[in-house]
C-alpha cells in the first residue's frame, strides 16, 4: 500500500496505517515516540492528542512532514491526490470532519515560471485557498500551519528581510503567496482564545533527498557533464525540507504564532550552493566520479518568464530567539547528500 502517487512511497514502517472509510483517507502513524527538544515534545504531544490533517503530503515538504509525524507517532490524515483540491471554492466542506486539530498545508502552486502565464489559477490555489483553510480552522478551533516564501519580498535589499517587513513581491508567484498570507491574517482577525491560531512560515530554496529540487538537479548534471554554469548574482538561504519540518514543530511547541522565518543558517549564491553540491556528491576525497567544473554566470544567461530576487535572505533572529540557532546550510546539505546515496 502506498500513501499516494508521484513515486514518493511512505517509508515501509509507516505503512501499517488504517484507511478511514468515511473520508477515503490514509491514516499514517506508528513507531516510537521521541522528543528531540522540550518544544518539539510539547508540539507533538498536542498533535498526538488531536491529530493532524496534512495537505500536499506527496510534495517535497509534505513527505518530510509525513516522516516526522510518523516518527513521533502522530496520527495523520493525508488526503490522496484529488481528494482535497485547493482550487475548489468549496474546499472547506471537503475537509474531513473529525480526526484533526492541526492542519498543515504543504500544498501550493509551486511552478514559479508557470504562474506568470497563469496568475489567476495560481492565486486561487496560493491566495484564496489558504483563506478557506484558515476559516475552517477558526471554526473548529484548530491550528493552521502554512508555508510562504522569500518571493513575497522584492529582493532588491542588502539586509536580511525581517518578519514584519512589508510585502513587495516582484513576480506572479510571489503575489499569489502574498495574497495567501494576507488571507490567513484576515480570516483570523480578532480571533480570541479558543478560536484556533495560525503559523505562516516563510522559507526559501527548499530541497530534500526526494522531489524536484536544485540539489538533485545539480547532482545529476554533475554526474553527466564536465562543466556547468550556475548563476552567481542571486543570494539566499538554502533550506532542507526535513530541517524545516523540525523547525516548524519547534516553533509550534515554543508557542510562536503569526509569521515566522524558517531556513537553514548562512547564505550563498546559487553558484556557491552548486559548488558545494558538486564537491559533496563527488564523494570523500573526490574519487566517486570525475570533477565537474562549476562556473559562475549572471542571471541573463538563463532568461526565465518570472523575475528572480537578487537578494532574498530571510532574517532568522526571531526564530533563533525562540528555538535556538538554525543548522548551517553547509551542514544540512552534507547530511542530505549523505542520505541521497
Ligand atoms: N520549493 C521551494 O524552493 C520553496 C521555496 C519557498 C517556499 N516554498 C513553499 O513551501 C511549500 C511546500 O513546497 P514544496 O516545494 O514542498 O512543493 P511541491 O513539492 O511542489 O509540492 C506541492 C504539493 O501541492 C500539491 N498541490 C498543487 N496544487 C494543488 C491543488 N490545487 N490542490 C491540492 N494539492 C495541490 C501538489 O500535488 P500534485 O503534485 O499532485 O500536483 C504537491 O503535492 C509551498 O507552500 C511553497 O510555496 C517552497
Q: Can you give a write-up of this model?
A:
With 341 residues, this protein is an alpha/beta fold. It has one domain: Rossmann fold, CATH 3.40.50. 37% of the residues lie in helices and 16% in strands. It has eleven helices and 14 strands. The radius of gyration is 20 Å and the shape is globular. It starts with 18 loop residues before the first strand and ends with a helix. The N terminus is likely disordered. It binds NADP nicotinamide-adenine-dinucleotide phosphate. The site of NADP nicotinamide-adenine-dinucleotide phosphate (NAP) has 26 residues, from α2 and β6.
Query: What is the residue-mean pLDDT, rounded to a whole number?
Result: 88
Gyration radius over CA: 20 Å
Instruction: Specify the number of helices.
Output: 11
**Overall strand count:** 14
Could you spell the SSE succession in H and E letters? EEHEHEHEHHEHEEHEEEHEEHEHH
Ordered list of secondary-structure elements with their pairings:
Blueprint: E1 19-20, E2 25-28, H1 38-50, E3 52-55, H2 60-71, E4 76-78, H3 91-94, E5 102-105, H4 114-117, H5 119-139, E6 143-149, H6 172-187, E7 197-203, E8 206-207, H7 214-224, E9 227-231, E10 235-236, E11 239-240, H8 241-253, E12 258-261, E13 268-269, H9 270-282, E14 293-297, H10 317-323, H11 329-340
Bound molecules: NADP nicotinamide-adenine-dinucleotide phosphate (NAP).
NADP nicotinamide-adenine-dinucleotide phosphate (NAP) is lined by residues 6, 56, 58-62, 81, 84-87, 106-110, 125, 147, 149, 177, 203-206, 211.
What is this entry, summarized?
The chain has helices at residues 38-50, 60-71, 91-94, 114-117, 119-139, 172-187, 214-224, 241-253, 270-282, 317-323, 329-340; strands at 19-20, 25-28, 52-55, 76-78, 102-105, 143-149, 197-203, 206-207, 227-231, 235-236, 239-240, 258-261, 268-269, 293-297. With 341 residues, it is an alpha/beta fold. Helix 5 (119-139) runs parallel beside helix 6 (172-187) and helix 7 (214-224) crosses helix 9.
Amino acid at each position: 500500500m502506498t500513501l499516494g502517487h508521484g513515486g514518493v512511497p511512505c517509508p515501509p514502517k509507516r505503512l501499517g496505517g488504517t484507511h478511514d472509510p468515511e473520508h477515503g483517507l490514509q491514516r499514517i502513524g506508528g513507531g516510537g515516540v521521541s522528543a528531540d527538544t522540550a518544544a518539539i515534545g510539547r508540539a507533538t504531544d498536542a498533535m498526538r492528542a488531536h491529530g493532524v490533517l496534512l495537505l500536499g503530503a506527496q510534495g517535497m515538504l509534505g513527505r518530510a512532514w509525513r516522516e516526522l509525524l510518523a516518527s513521533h507517532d502522530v496520527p495523520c490524515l493525508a488526503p490522496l491526490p484529488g481528494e482535497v483540491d485547493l482550487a475548489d471554492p468549496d474546499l472547506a466542506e471537503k475537509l474531513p470532519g473529525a480526526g484533526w486539530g492541526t492542519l498543515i498545508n504543504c500544498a501550493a502552486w509551486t511552478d514559479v515560471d508557470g504562474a506568470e502565464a497563469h496568475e489567476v489559477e495560481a492565486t486561487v490555489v496560493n491566495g484564496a485557498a489558504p483563506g478557506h483553510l484558515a476559516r475552517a480552522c477558526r471554526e473548529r478551533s484548530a491550528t493552521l500551519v502554512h508555508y510562504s516564501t522569500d518571493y513575497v519580498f522584492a529582493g532588491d535589499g542588502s539586509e536580511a528581510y525581517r518578519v514584519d517587513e512589508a510585502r513587495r513581491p516582484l513576480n506572479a508567484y510571489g503575489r499569489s503567496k502574498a495574497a495567501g498570507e494576507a488571507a490567513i491574517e484576515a480570516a483570523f482577525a480578532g480571533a480570541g482564545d479558543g478560536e484556533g491560531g495560525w503559523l505562516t512560515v516563510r522559507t526559501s530554496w527548499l530541497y530534500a533527498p526526494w522531489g524536484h529540487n536544485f540539489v538533485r538537479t545539480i547532482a545529476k548534471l554533475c554526474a553527466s557533464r564536465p562543466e556547468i554554469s550556475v548563476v552567481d548574482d542571486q543570494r539566499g538561504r538554502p533550506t532542507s525540507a526535513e530541517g524545516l519540518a523540525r523547525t516548524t514543530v519547534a516553533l509550534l511547541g515554543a508557542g510562536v504564532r503569526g509569521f515566522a522565518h524558517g531556513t537553514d543558517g548562512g547564505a550563498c549564491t546559487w553558484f556557491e550552493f552548486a559548488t558545494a553540491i558538486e564537491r559533496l556528491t563527488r564523494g570523500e576525497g573526490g574519487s566517486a566520479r570525475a570533477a565537474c567544473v562549476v562556473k559562475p554566470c549572471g542571471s541573463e544567461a538563463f532568461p526565465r518568464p518570472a523575475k528572480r530576487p537578487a537578494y532574498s535572505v530571510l532574517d532568522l533572529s526571531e526564530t533563533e530567539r525562540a528555538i535556538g540557532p538554525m543548522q548551517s546550510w553547509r551542514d544540512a546539505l552534507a547530511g542530505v547528500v549523505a542520505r541521497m546515496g
